[in-house]
Amino acid sequence: MTEKTKGLSGLALKWIAVVTMFVDHLAIALAGIIPSGAYDGMRIVGRLAFPLFCFLLVEGFYHTGNIRKYLIRLGVFALISEIPFDFLLFGRVVYMGYQNVFFTLFTGLLLLYLYNRFLGNVQPIYAAMTLISMLCLAFVIQCDYGAEGVLLIFLIYFFHYRPVAMMVSIAVVMAVMGGIEPFGILAIVPIAFYNGRRGGRVMEEETNEKDMARDFRKGLAAKYFFYCFYPLHLAVLGVLKYLLH
Fold first, then answer.
1. How many Å apart are CA 123 and CA 129, to the nearest integer?
2. Which of 40, 37, 44, 36 is nearest to 20 (CA)?
3. Residue 190 near residue 52 (C-beta atoms within 8 A)
4. How do the residues of the chain divide into helix, strand and coil, expressed in percent and rounded to 5?
5. What is the pLDDT of residues 189-220, one digit of tens each?
6. Spans in the chain with pLDDT lower than 50
7. Which end of the chain has the least Cβ crowding within 10 Å, N or C?
8. What is the dihedral sign for C-alpha 28, 222, 166, 141?
9. Nearest to 77 by CA among 198, 226, 221, 239
10. Cα separations (Å) of 89 from 30, 58, 82?
11. Which helix (H) or strand (E) holds 7?
């Protein structure tokens, strides 16, 4: 049997984030081919993805068993994703002026890790310096969403147990970004329905070890699917854009 819980699980939020991201990037690949109204609508839909990924990153920070491995995964996929990211957005194999969103998530997670280390050692001044340093780093490397994106990750973490303040902080940061980014405020709707569950099958106490091992493998495959989807879909859409133009 499965345990039914109302609301949206972490897995459901991941799917919403991935689908809206794909719609956004598909619009970039089809720019100039589809009607401008369709293009604008698809880009607006895509604004939901980043706040959702930031929220899921913070949830991962609270629940991961090994923060260093988490950082390594983000760093590795940031490097893997850079060439397809540059090819889709800028039509170049290498473009150093702007970095993909995995760099933003990596910088945000590194901030949370160091911030907590310093606070745990009762060194609040160093924690504050870490926040400033990571915001500056995001600005210097020009990662996707920049310093505002890293700040959003920090605010979601800081107000993690104060949902109203967290929703307000998401709205404020997205509004400050300007352009079409304020539409990202809509991400607070699925976040508000988050039920705190990871998602997938909840096993009963009598579930045997074989079933547990099988579910572990499925969970591991699902986790890496979401990591791999980012560079793979960028590469496919980059080739599509190249062929169409």
1. 10
2. 44
3. yes
4. 75, 0, 25
5. 999 999 998 875 443 444 454 544 555 555 56
6. 1-4, 201-207, 209, 211-212
7. N
8. negative
9. 226
10. 12, 27, 11
11. none
